[in-house]
Specification:
Elements: H1 2-24, H2 30-38, E1 50-51, H3 53-61, E2 67-71, H4 75-80, E3 87-88, H5 94-100, E4 108-112, H6 117-128, E5 134-137, H7 150-153, H8 187-201, E6 207-208, H9 210-215, E7 221-224, H10 228-231, E8 240-241, E9 263-266, H11 271-283, E10 287-290, H12 299-305, H13 313-316
Parallel strand pairs: 1-5, 2-3, 2-4, 4-5, 6-10, 7-8, 7-9, 9-10
Helix pairs in contact: 2-8, 6-8, 6-11, 8-11
């Protein structure tokens, strides 16, 4: 009886001891681990990583084995006309397709979409994983041929030009990082889980239209991803300027981005902001890229100001071959 009592007390002590040890183990701040792992990704060239239609066409004409083209448009649009050799892959399958086909062996993997924006978002996710041969086709298929140029030719405009302001928005005070919970413990594994989730979610949830951006500008946190000089020309009311390739890493101003608001990022074209939105969403921010950027809101102002990236159909739309 005495031995039984001693055994019982020993087991109880062991259970309490190990439970206490588990309680003493520090919880992992996943977002902290992740941003430290990503380092200066958002500030390291090439960011955004783009390739022109001219360069892709040169590879097609020379039948370069170093170029691999992925077209993420829907199947019907792809079949109506695509780049020779391009493989049609759904956005959500990009990561799987890249890895199953050992595309790290290619010199360049060009992702193609309608306008360059969805491709930029996908390319950013892949590049964060270390797949640095991935680039987005600048302007998407809109730059390839007049027959596929409507996504851009139909979306440049000046509908918000009169509503832009020059008064500076108030930058948020530095706060905490978002909370994410993948159940992983290392930067590599946390990143992998986040990227897989975002590919599964698709590109649309990471986007916002100009109308919605203006309607909700007082409740969203809007990031103007331009130089200070261009920001002063005119911006969305309340928008706050963040300097490209300088502001948004953890060592700089990342922690000024709020965790309790929708974060709208806009640039000139929606392509750079798609790269940025992917980075912010991986970390856990509720970030959205503003489709077509300022080109869709204040095009003439951008042209007259100069120095801003604008879509010029006369120079950007080519007559490269489409195949079916």
């Amino acid at each position: 009886m005495k031995n039984t009592k001693i055994l019982f007390l020993s087991i109880l002590f062991a259970v309490l001891f190990f439970t206490a040890c588990e309680d003493d183990e520090p919880s992992i701040n996943e977002s902290q681990v992740l941003v430290e792992y990503l380092g200066e990704y958002v500030n390291t060239a090439p960011f955004p990583a783009m390739i022109t239609a001219t360069d892709v066409n040169s590879a097609v004409l020379t039948q370069s084995t170093g170029m691999y083209i992925i077209d993420i448009r829907d199947a019907a649009t792809y079949e109506a006309g695509h780049i020779s050799g391009a493989v049609n892959v759904a956005f959500g399958d990009l990561l799987t397709h890249y890895e199953e086909n050992a595309l790290g062996s290619k010199e360049t993997v060009a992702i193609v979409c309608l306008s360059g924006q969805g491709a930029s978002y996908g390319a950013s996710l892949l590049r964060m994983l270390g797949y640095t041969n991935v680039k987005a086709l600048k302007w998407g298929m809109s730059s390839w041929n007049a027959a596929t140029s409507t996504p851009w030719t139909g979306n440049v405009g000046n509908s918000k030009a009169a509503f832009m302001v020059t008064e500076a928005g108030t930058k948020n005070e530095e706060g905490s990082l978002p909370e994410i919970n993948t159940g992983k413990s290392t930067g590599e594994t946390i990143l992998r889980a986040r990227v897989e989730e975002l590919f599964a979610n698709g590109f649309t949830p990471a986007t916002i239209t100009k109308d919605d951006a203006f309607t909700n500008s007082s409740t969203n946190y809007t990031i103007n991803y331009w130089s200070q000089a261009h920001y002063e020309v005119g911006h969305i009311p309340g928008a706050v300027q963040y300097t490209p390739s300088a502001s948004l890493s953890y060592s700089q101003e990342l922690k000024t981005v709020p965790t309790d608001k929708i974060v709208v990022v806009y640039c000139y074209t929606g392509q750079t902001s798609a790269f940025v939105a992917a980075y912010l969403k991986v970390i856990g921010y509720d970030a959205k890229t503003l489709l077509y950027g300022a080109n869709g809101m204040m095009y003439d102002t951008m042209v007259s100001e100069g120095g801003m990236t604008v879509f010029n159909a006369d120079t950007e739309v080519h007559d490269y071959t489409l195949v079916q």
